[in-house]
Amino acid sequence: MIDPELKYCPQCRDEYRPDISQCGVCGTTLLTGGQFMALHENKSEKRAQRKGDLTAADELVNIQGGPLTDMRHLEELLKAERIGTMLVGDERNCGKGCCPSNFFLQVRREDAADAFAVIQAEHQRMTALADHGADLVDGVFNADAGQATCPACGFSFQTSTNTCPDCGLCFG
Prior knowledge:
With about 170 residues, the protein is an alpha+beta fold. The chain folds into three domains: about 5-50, no CATH class; about 60-130, Alpha-Beta Plaits, CATH 3.30.70; about 130-170, no CATH class. Helix content is about 25%, strand content about 15%. A three-stranded antiparallel β-sheet has the order 2-1-3. The radius of gyration is 22 Å and the shape is flat. The mean pLDDT is about 85.
């Protein structure tokens, strides 16, 4: 139940007092209860307008490729959003189930942007990338510098070792 007097995080869905303006978990600007309800009504309307199951006349595009188990997981997420999907084996698939193969997840061209957004949100959720800054991603390990900052965890350490003592990332 959404209380119009309270505030809500559109990312975490956490509930806050009216005087709070930012989510304590992810830092996102909070929405009022009314704004939060309108956001979810919008998403529900958009979901209801989607065509759902694919037809032979639909123009399909590949949006993701990978092992069957990964693609099945993404397929279920998209089906929950009423985005029609199809899994297609690559040309290396012998059809007997014995050949290692990648599969491609296909959706209607008009659903591709929404499908990609769902997959991207799932990727961020599974990897916790939304919780980490990317400001150190371009860092380079220089053994002659004496001091280094790990681009994975941000820990500062002496370059006498080529492994981050905090997270174990090896620079060797």
